[in-house]
Write a structure and sequence with these properties.
The structure holds two protein chains of two kinds.
Chain A: H1 6-11, E1 15-19, E2 22-27, H2 31-40, E3 43-46, E4 53-56, H3 60-67, E5 80-86, E6 92-102, E7 105-109, H4 115-123, E8 132-135, E9 140-146, H5 150-156, E10 167-175, E11 182-187, E12 196-202, H6 206-220, E13 223-225, H7 227-236, H8 270-279, E14 282-289, E15 300-303, E16 306-317, E17 322-330, E18 339-344, E19 347-354
Parallel strand pairs in A: 3-13
Antiparallel strand pairs in A: 1-2, 3-9, 4-7, 4-8, 5-6, 6-7, 9-12, 10-11, 11-12, 14-17, 14-19, 15-16, 15-18, 16-17, 18-19
Chain B: E1 9-10, E2 15-20, E3 23-28, H1 30-36, E4 39-43, E5 50-51, E6 56-62, E7 66-70, E8 75-80, H2 90-93, E9 101-105, H3 116-122
Antiparallel strand pairs in B: 1-2, 2-3, 3-9, 4-6, 5-8, 6-7, 8-9
Classes of the chains: A alpha+beta, B alpha+beta.
Chain lengths: 360, 125
């Protein structure tokens, strides 16, 4: 599959890779260069492969409250929340952002690889409710504009930066399937840990906005960014990657996102989730690693010759210029500053435990 | 389009090599560096260690992955390019100007490989 921006990626000489069936740019100029552009100035990403699902009807709030550990019926219109779909065991199926459009209408953005599964899962819990689900992923494109320079870049193309986790609509040329009007949605969200926004636009208008951003690169120096830097940026900030850091096997408490759980309402997986609080002994953390070898997914975390956990993501931190990792380890080693080791091929390298957010 | 200089030999696993005096100089191709993404570390073998043609010679760590580099000949490691320790990104910017190791081929070990034309065909360019 290809996003509406595929031709731009080719024109910009991107290295294209297959990402869960999507031909996506891995990098244009280089992963580290693009990473630093986002930390120091701004970068823009094609994230049109992600899903867009509308939930509409009188029971929408009730329906989503049942599906999610977060009580999204309490969101005001124009606000968004990070949350996750849990299975009956309390394990995360996929993480997502839910947006409230009006009293009876929401939409959410699942990951590209899980959109089909989530739509099926959600539909299977809608019996007897006044609620309609519509997967409009193919009609919508999304461009993430991220970095300390994103505010000025957005201004230059006539877009005001929203507050974090709020969104607004702005008139544009074509009909947006999510709102039903000729407009784009500007959302104060992202996956880089920087200021910035995501432009949720009709597929037919994606190129227009992207080309405006390419123009800003010449004027202000920001960069088009691929999935490579998207991954290293989220890693430095300890943000989970669906299917990599968790894959139907971790609860929100284990994954260090317990803040999404609101225990005052009923939701799928609640009972198992609360029970497992004491039995699940691992927790998600970040690691700063000595030496130059890079920890990768699946590598063992060790202490005193004993295995205490597993790396789920690893790379070099372009900001710190050291190897970093994210992973799950025995809670008794989870305190910030604890010395552990990570086994990379045949050698063990010293590592220091940090909060998942490795850089501030 | 990857750069493939005419004066070198190539392997299907994307190494370039060339006989210089009695040593074989080995590096990675432009195609390989493009696939790897930004190189951040080269894990060298010990000087003096024995290698087999087609066996693992060293490991290159990039932002995205760790990839093995294979030896084009039987022999021993004569020297490694420590210039790359402080600037591994030079493998991305100039893969043919920055060799990785020099090998002393075992006596009788042939220095055979793909020509530039054959390698271009192999990578489909």
């Amino acid at each position: 599959m290809r996003t509406p921006l595929y031709d731009r990626h080719v024109a910009l000489n991107a290295k294209i890779v297959d990402f869960h069936g999507w031909d996506m740019p891995l990098y244009y100029s280089g992963i580290i260069n693009e990473h630093m552009a986002v930390r120091e100035n701004f970068g823009y990403f094609d994230v049109s492969h992600m899903g867009d699902v509308i939930v509409e009807g009188k029971d929408s709030g009730r329906f989503l409250d049942h599906l999610l550990p977060t009580q999204v019926s309490r969101l005001e219109a124009g606000k968004a929340a990070y949350t996750a779909f849990l299975d009956e065991s309390g394990n995360i199926i996929d993480d997502t952002i839910v947006y409230r459009l009006s009293a009876d209408k929401f939409f959410f953005v699942p990951n590209a690889s899980t959109t089909g599964e989530i739509v099926k899962w959600a539909s299977s819990h809608s019996d007897g409710l006044d609620v309609t689900l519509r997967n409009v992923s193919s009609e919508i494109a999304c461009i993430a504009l991220q970095g300390p320079g994103a505010t000025i870049a957005a201004q230059k193309i006539g877009i005001r930066e929203p507050e974090p986790f709020t969104f607004y609509s702005q008139e544009s040329g074509d009909r947006n399937s999510i709102t039903g009007n000729r407009e784009i949605i500007v959302s104060g969200t992202g996956y880089t840990g920087e200021k910035g926004m995501e432009l949720i636009v009709p597929a037919s208008e994606a190129e227009k906005y992207w080309i405006k951003l390419e123009g800003l690169t010449r004027e202000l120096g920001g960069q088009p960014c691929g999935l490579g830097s998207r991954d290293t940026l989220r890693m430095e900030k300890g943000m989970l990657l669906s299917g990599t850091d968790f894959d139907h096997n971790r609860t929100p408490f284990e994954a260090s996102v317990g803040f999404i759980v609101n225990e005052e309402h009923e939701f799928i997986g609640k009972e198992s989730l609360l029970k497992s609080k004491s039995s699940r002994n691992e927790i998600f953390r970040g690691f700063k690693v000595d030496g130059k070898a890079i920890p990768r997914s699946g590598f063992p975390l060790m202490a005193g010759g004993k295995r205490i956990g597993t790396v789920t993501s690893g790379s070099i931190s372009p900001v710190l210029k050291i190897p970093i990792a994210l992973g799950f380890l025995d809670k008794s080693y989870s305190k910030e500053g604890t010395a552990v080791k990570v086994r990379i091929r045949s050698e063990e390298y010293p590592a220091t435990v940090s909060k998942p957010r490795i850089i501030r | 389009m990857s750069k493939v200089p005419d004066n070198l030999l190539y392997s299907k696993t994307h190494e370039w090599f060339v006989l210089e005096g009695n040593l074989v100089k080995v590096g990675i191709t432009d195609y390989a560096q493009h696939q790897l993404t930004d190189v951040v570390y080269v894990e060298y073998p010990k000087v003096g260690s024995a290698v087999k043609a087609g066996g693992v010679l060293l490991t290159i760590e990039s932002v995205k992955s760790a990839e093995d580099v294979f030896s084009p000949v039987d022999g021993t490691v004569s020297s490694v390019n420590n210039d790359l320790d402080s600037a591994p990104e030079k493998l991305n910017s100039d893969p043919y100007g920055n060799w990785l190791v020099k090998l002393k081929p075992a006596s009788g070990s042939p220095t055979k490989g793909l020509s530039a034309v054959e390698y271009r065909k192999h990578i489909g360019e």
